[in-house]
Amino acid sequence: MQNSTKRRHQAILEIIHAGPVYNQEELASRLKEAGIPSTQATLSRDLNALKISKIPGEGYVIPVKNHPPTTDLSSGILRIQFSGQLAVLKTRPGLASGVAALIDAQTFRSIIGTIAGDDTILLIGRVDATQADVLDALTPLFPEIKTRVII
Q: Are residues 21 and 94 in the same domain?
């Protein structure tokens, strides 16, 4: 990565970390004030490369870095709610994909797979799996999962 790209990426992270940024025009303006002019196309690529997402009403958010599952990913699961063999897991913004990938990388008898968005995961259990089976399967990866069940 070129030095100017690294510098721009660092500046983008600092600007977003310092306070809410709601659109690319605002981000470009703040970069220009910092002496780093940038085009809209470049900003789009940078935001994508940095995996920065935009949340309505909150602006751009920096994703939490992936850490071992028993620390950040486990604390990133806010709640789990069941409906038959389906479960919906709500995570902190940007974590759903990492949590789902971790679940899908395992071979659980009670879990068929997952579908993830930015902060929501649809978990599909086998037809004969109980909620307790799914929770027992997830507990080694996410020790606090049973405290996050919504009835």
A: no
